[in-house]
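Case study 2.
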Amino acid sequence: MEVRALAQASVLDVKGVPKVLGEHWLRHPAVVVWLRHYGCLFCREQAAEMRAAKPYITALGAELVFVGNGTPAQAADFQAAFAAGETVLTDPDLRSYRLIGARSGVFNTIGPRVWRGGLRALRRGARQTRVKGHPFQQGGVLVLAPGNHVLYTHVSREAGDHPPVQEVLDALRYHRVDRKAS
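Prediction:
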């Protein structure tokens, strides 16, 4: 993964203003969650999981950022409904997705494991709406730190493949311990 290129990637905020993605981990760590698309029930489930962990993320000195690939208006709607108070960005060109090695394709979006994950997400209260972005794009989660250090990487194999939140928090904890030791 070319982390410098990722740090320089241009994305849009919910108002359509270009932003440099790396600004979010320039001064402190960031947990960056790449969503499949803004209407995805798995992404809504994941946003709820990450937002529940937000007090721990903040206590560990990090920021939580969501990146989708629909329009800025769709990003704003997602932010209002599922990520109030969080940074939500959009990458309609999918450049940052390619830079993290995110998968895309029909077979990553359908199949028995995806259906099981869909039932899990439904039981947790997530609901699918119309596609708001690229329908076959998969996401991922990276924990990045100043100096373009990658502390954690999870690239989703298929829709609904989220990392355990505890792994994300552990990456932040280890980073914090390492910094105190140096």
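Helices lie at 3-8, 41-52, 54-59, 72-82, 95-100, 112-123, 165-181.
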